[in-house]
Amino acid sequence: MTPYDKFLKTVVDVHYFDQHASVLVALSGGVDSMTLFEWLYQAKDRLNVTLSVAHINHKQRVASDMEENLLSKKMAELGVPFYTAHYEGTFSEEKARNFRYAFFEEVMTTQHISALVTAHHSNDLIENFLIRQIRGSRLRFLTGMKPVQGFGPDEGMELIRPLLSFEKSELTATTYFEDASNSENEYLRNRVRNTYLPAFSKENPRFSENLASLSEEIGLAMTIVSDSMTDFSGAKIIELIAFNQETEALQYFILQDYLTQFPTLEVAKRQFDQLLHIIRRQGQYLHAMSAEYNFVKDQYCFYIEKRTNKIEFETSLTPFVLGEFSQIAIPDTGEIIIRKRLAGDRVVINGMHKKLRRFFIDNKIALKKRDNPLVTVDNQIYGVLDVVSTDLSKSLKHAKIKRTLYYREKR
């Protein structure tokens, strides 16, 4: 059986393209992607699909523009739509990858293409496993790439990797571009491919095979873990009672799974361990995890929120015409100031003078509300919006000479 025959049998038997009429091929121009394109082009009538091609010019080599032009010309001759984008800015492997997939998603969305196909093969699985080990990735990220997974914002869009059962030596493209930078060791992937894997293979010729087998075993183990925490998967808020009923081992993976909802949030192992410790102990917690996200824990649950999600209020001395609102009684005269809490602020609640901070703690006020604005008149605190009215305000509640401050959250 030729490599092409093996490819055709694989995609037909596994039904990769049964639900797809249009396919976008990620085409770099190297032997991997050119083989994938040639095989798909040869099989397109058998598979009943139409092909389009997406190419990224990373602008990192002198030959990049020439390669783009030649690929464009070849696709025009074959009648295959060709979409291209130019990478700009400081180059890194991660930034380039994010740029590529964002462009692929854009093309698929605008051109109504339901399947993206990439040329990842078995050698890539092994390289990725070792790279992630070197970078200290967690267990769940050592499971290898899936042949098919959801992709993009629309239901039914998929990323398909039909070459994962193929070794690089089986790829048959006769026309392709050789990237000279692949022989250089500036980037980690090249060092893994050119130096580390050959060195380990000298110690054990079956080293790559063993890595692939280990990745498969990890995948099976993670399937069991995932099946055990289906009640938590995808949840935006994790209830503490349910979380604490699980074993500590499963709690570890529940938190890992929760964090995957925030792909731009990088959580080092030390920070992860700290979060787990905070969740398991008593007390509330509010922490800025990054410039973008807060971690919040109250007495009922924990969650991660955008830091821009601060509670804001609008106030008025006359009732709002529409919608619900709350109110605080204040003196008829005196300067009204609505301000943030200051260190040492004291309030009178139920006849007791307390520091505001102690009042929050004793009454288990949610951490998010502890930054709500204070209402003061002539430097006396009459209330904290959406938290409490002080004795000063309550004494005015039925007085004839008073003002009423109306407030509600901004929508």
Structural class: alpha+beta
The protein's oligomeric status is: single chain
In what order do the strands lie side by side in the largest sheet?
A: 3-2-1-4-6-5
CATH architecture of the largest domain: 3-Layer(aba) Sandwich
Determine the N-to-C terminus distance: 65 Å
Rg value: 30 Å
Helix content: 25-40%
What are the low-pLDDT stretches, counting only 5+ consecutive residues below 50? none
CATH class of the largest domain: Alpha Beta
The tally of strands reads: 19
SS strand fraction: 15-25%
Biggest sheet features: 6 strands, mixed
CATH topology label of the largest domain: Rossmann fold
Any idea how many domains?
3
Shape: elongated
- Average pLDDT reading: 88
Q: Helical segment tally?
A: 12
Look at the structure and name the CATH superfamily of the largest domain: HUPs
Question: Your description of this structure?
Answer:
By secondary structure, the protein is an alpha+beta fold. It folds into three domains: 3-213, 3-Layer(aba) Sandwich (Rossmann fold); 229-306, 2-Layer Sandwich (Uridine Diphospho-n-acetylenolpyruvylglucosamine Reductase, domain 3); 313-409, no CATH class. The chain is 38% helix and 20% strand. The protein has helices spanning 3-14, 31-47, 64-78, 93-111, 122-135, 188-203, 207-228, 240-244, 248-259, 269-280, 356-362, 391-394; strands spanning 22-26, 50-57, 82-86, 115-117, 148-150, 158-160, 238-239, 285-288, 293-297, 301-306, 313-316, 326-330, 336-339, 346-349, 352-355, 374-377, 380-384, 388-389, 403-409. A six-stranded mixed beta sheet has the order 3-2-1-4-6-5, sandwiched between helices. Helix 5 (122-135) packs across helix 6 and helix 5 packs across helix 7 (207-228). The longest helix is centred in the middle third of the chain and has 22 residues, at 207-228. The mean pLDDT is 88. Its EC number is 6.3.4.19. Belongs to the tRNA(Ile)-lysidine synthase family. This is tRNA(Ile)-lysidine synthase.
